[in-house]
């Protein structure tokens, strides 16, 4: 079979990229790559686009890593773009001062440039994801770092990103990738183009990948506070000797469902499972913590439909667990948290949540479960979140105090060697 020229170029490019990644790992030394930070990309909605075009400007974005390393590489994504994204330079530096909460301060002494096949920049074709070369970098565990990108040509209307960043990003004129602070920059609480940071670890290094919705994405956490529940899980793991080499990646998307796409039209949990979980680098464990959007916003009103929805969710969870195990990834499930004081609650919908949670607690499909429902529910009204843990009284989302309580309940032995 003769491939069309554009497909042949893409096949050759992917093969060359794989070869270069292998060479990059070899040049960095022994070990294997794991993901220390990642986010789930999708097509940025019009109301979440950058406040000004990114072309020929610098975008500084802050992320919270998990596992430390001496060698890193950067993954950039143009999966949903319709035109190429040109990166003229890409740098990494430790946050300094108030960082994302201030004027985008970095420590210049920690500033390092990424290369792409030896070049300072790269053109990312539409629909593609690219990796940088390995760079030597002393990254402590659970660090807040800045990824600064200086763009060439880039679309102003179709941008791959992750709007639920819960951190402030900075858009500055010209090439400011190494500038210590950006007081005149435009600000936006979104991420664009960045997909993951990967760390070279020893043979014990491994990563947890979390498939989730807005509760995992951090709705209810503190903007620039880095206190989403996966962030706090990473902190607990790092402080525990048997799990200090375990990274955490947050693949949550707000409004996302396991079954459905969600209100923004991004892929469902099951549709993005291969990309966001199975194809993450160095994943040893998988947690699914989602399903509330498939329940609370389903519009189901009859017991028969409720039973069918519970069965559909259970079937998908089972499929995800089996796919993970086939990749030598241990699958875990977290129970779905309450929504009793939200505007969508009904007893019929609650019956779906209860049925799914009972199955999670008692099935043998997963290697274990994490009972977040038991942690955050109100003992006097189990269909409700405990008032001290509710975010802005919306009845569904959890605040930073509740996130810490959830993390405190996690049995770290689930992630021990």
Description:
This protein is of the alpha+beta class and 417 residues long. 25% of the residues lie in helices and 27% in strands. It is built from nine helices and 22 strands. Strands 3, 5, 6, 7, 10, 12 and 13 form a seven-stranded antiparallel beta sheet that branches. Strands 1, 4, 8, 9 and 15 form a five-stranded antiparallel beta sheet that branches. It is globular. The termini are far apart.
Give structural attributes:
single chain; 417 residues; alpha+beta; seven-stranded antiparallel sheet; five-stranded antiparallel sheet; 9 helices; disordered N terminus
Strand runs, count: 22
The percentage helix is 10-25%
Largest sheet, strands/sense/barrel: 7 strands, antiparallel
Q: Structural class, judged by helices and strands?
A: alpha+beta
- Mean pLDDT, to the nearest integer, reads 93
Mass-distribution shape:
globular
The low-confidence runs, each spanning 5 or more residues with pLDDT under 50, are: 1-27
- β-sheet strand percentage: 25-35%
Gist of the model:
The chain has nine helices and 22 strands.
Fold topology:
Blueprint: H1 5-28, E1 32-38, E2 42-43, E3 57-64, E4 69-77, E5 85-94, E6 112-113, E7 122-124, E8 129-131, E9 135-139, E10 144-151, E11 160-162, E12 169-173, E13 186-188, E14 191-192, E15 194-201, E16 206-212, H2 214-217, H3 229-238, E17 246-252, H4 273-278, E18 283-289, H5 292-296, H6 303-326, E19 330-334, H7 347-362, E20 368-370, H8 372-376, E21 377-378, E22 381-385, H9 400-408
Parallel strand pairs: 16-17, 16-18, 18-19, 19-20
Antiparallel strand pairs: 1-15, 2-11, 3-10, 3-12, 4-8, 4-9, 4-15, 5-6, 5-7, 5-10, 11-14, 12-13, 21-22
